[in-house]
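Input (structure):
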């Protein structure tokens, strides 16, 4: 040990300071050491520990927890993925819409709903195809007996028809023959060579009111099995129709706003209960010709009470009787108060029996005002022979009334 060097046992220098390779031997370094029990010759102090301190743990538990968590997450993800794939279908497509209860294979509609009425009536509605010298015509009709009688329009059958074919709701066809027709009232009856058919149910056209809901059935514009909806928009709409030099037809019609077009002619107009109340016959259109005519919310149907009566007479006798009042009408009105002037009265006819005379102006028939001669003819045709109607007329300056018993013509 060098002279003057401190004693290693008591020196404040590190015991190995002289051998420290990082020490600068020229720079003395002193370490002040606090006096301790050991340096004073006493025992070493007891280690001090904090009883509240958390015990130190290794990293192994953390690795174990992480591994278990990853395994559980993988298993859950796989299960959910499989479930979504099954629900979404093959190829993993996305399922859209509600997952509620499956709808029934065939939806059921209440019998009194529009769909229920349509389902009940459609099997009785037919398409009528007629061929003749004028080409092929197409219209509609409806079955009225199980053995094949069908009501349609006279203008659907036309004059000089060579043959007719009926197409049913299911697409099947059958030949038909013309039984008879009444051109003035625009009613015809044809007979189909088939039995076991479903006839329509008849309603009462005298019991309907403006605003009642209606459905129109037929084959408009060659579109078979078409149903349109509307209301009764007017009653006893009187007018005459026909081409100059051709057949003149008179209508006291049910007016409806149900969409009716070419091809609907002869099809049924039914009430909210599915009962036939009219025969669709005429449309009102601003078109210049029939080929370009289309629905504008004005269509007209022959009241079924009138059509049924005429059809029954045609089936029973081969022809229909025309109802007449026994007077000819025409000439100018006077006084500007409306009405139809009687030009002559048939001796012994209904008008003469009721006391009407030539020159009288008929103002109302059964409470319905008259403006044109065609109004009187159309309203009279609506009633059956033997019906009693009230007539209000003016003779000179006096208003009078009478009851007239209508009759059938001699034709």
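Output (sequence):
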């Amino acid at each position: 040990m060098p002279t003057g060097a401190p004693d290693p046992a008591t020196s404040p220098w590190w015991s190995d300071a002289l051998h420290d390779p990082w020490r600068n031997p020229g720079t003395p370094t002193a370490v002040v050491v606090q006096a301790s029990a050991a340096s004073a010759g006493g025992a070493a102090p007891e280690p001090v520990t904090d009883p509240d301190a958390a015990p130190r743990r290794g990293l192994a538990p953390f690795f174990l927890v992480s591994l278990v968590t990853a395994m559980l997450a993988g298993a859950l993800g796989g299960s959910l993925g499989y479930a979504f794939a099954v629900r979404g279908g093959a190829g993993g497509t996305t399922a859209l819409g509600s997952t509620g209860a499956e709808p029934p294979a065939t939806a059921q509609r209440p019998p009194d709903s529009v769909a229920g009425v349509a389902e009940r009536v459609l099997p009785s509605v037919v398409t009528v195809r007629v061929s003749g010298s004028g080409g092929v015509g197409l219209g509609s009709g409806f079955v009225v007996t199980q053995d094949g009688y069908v009501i349609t329009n006279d203008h659907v059958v036309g004059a000089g028809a060579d043959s007719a074919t009926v197409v049913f709701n299911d697409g099947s066809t059958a030949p038909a023959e013309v039984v008879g027709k009444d051109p003035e009232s625009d009613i015809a009856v044809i007979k189909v060579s088939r039995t076991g058919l479903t006839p329509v149910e008849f309603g009462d056209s005298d019991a309907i009111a403006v605003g009642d809901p209606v459905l129109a059935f037929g084959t408009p514009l060659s579109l078979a099995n078409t149903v349109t909806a509307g209301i009764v928009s007017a009653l006893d709409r009187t007018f005459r129709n026909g081409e100059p030099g051709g057949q003149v037809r008179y209508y006291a019609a049910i007016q409806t706003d149900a969409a009716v077009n070419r091809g609907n002619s002869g099809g049924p107009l039914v009430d909210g209960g599915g009962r036939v109340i009219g025969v669709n016959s005429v449309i009102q259109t601003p078109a210049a010709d029939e080929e370009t005519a289309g629905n504008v919310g004005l269509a007209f149907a022959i009241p079924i009470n009138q059509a049924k009566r005429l059809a029954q007479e045609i089936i029973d006798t081969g022809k229909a009787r025309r109802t007449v009042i026994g007077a000819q009408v025409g000439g100018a009105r006077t006084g500007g108060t409306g009405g139809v002037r009687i030009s002559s009265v048939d001796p012994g006819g209904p008008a003469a029996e009721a006391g009407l005379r030539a020159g009288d102006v008929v103002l109302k028939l059964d409470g319905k005002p008259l403006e044109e001669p065609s109004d009187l003819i159309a309203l009279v045709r609506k009633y059956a022979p033997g019906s009693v109607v009230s007539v209000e007329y003016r003779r000179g300056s006096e208003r009078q009334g009478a009851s007239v018993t209508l009759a059938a013509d001699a034709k």
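Notes: Residues 323-408 form a domain with the Pdz3 Domain fold (CATH 2.30.42.10). Residues 158 and 360 are 38 Å apart (CA to CA).
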